[in-house]
Amino acid sequence: MDMNLVHWPAVVVAGLSAFAVGGLWYSNALFGKAWMTDSGLDIKEINASGKGKIFGFTALFSIIMSANLAMFLADAKTDLAWGAIAGFLAGIWTFGAIATHSLFELKSWRYIFINGGYSVVSLTLMGLILGAWR
């Protein structure tokens, strides 16, 4: 790993890309209603939550995830294709962790695939951005 090959503006953009993916993924147009049902939440609870705190920590953790992925990709041979593949593989890794925790929480498979799918898609996009923006 060559830390000189970590492109920090790309890390920030890749990390924040998770917001765009999440906004669409958890919208009513895609999986929002199913996710709310399976998570046991309703719109009143979501609207009453501390969204500033949630979005702030989400941004922080997304950037940390992006920085971690960027460190794995800190090689002169990294390109768009390898970045996307590495992001996808990281997404599969996190899918497994989400599935494990969710099974012990007695969550449905639909819930697991919604949250795990988000992880796979958002990390694949992060890897693509990091691999392309060298």
From TrEMBL:
Keywords: Membrane, Transmembrane, Transmembrane helix. The chain crosses the membrane at residues 6-26, 54-74, 80-99, 111-133. The keyword Metal-binding does not apply. Pfam families: DUF1761. InterPro entries: DUF1761. This is DUF1761 domain-containing protein. It comes from Mucilaginibacter gilvus. The lineage of its organism: Bacteria, Pseudomonadati, Bacteroidota, Sphingobacteriia, Sphingobacteriales.
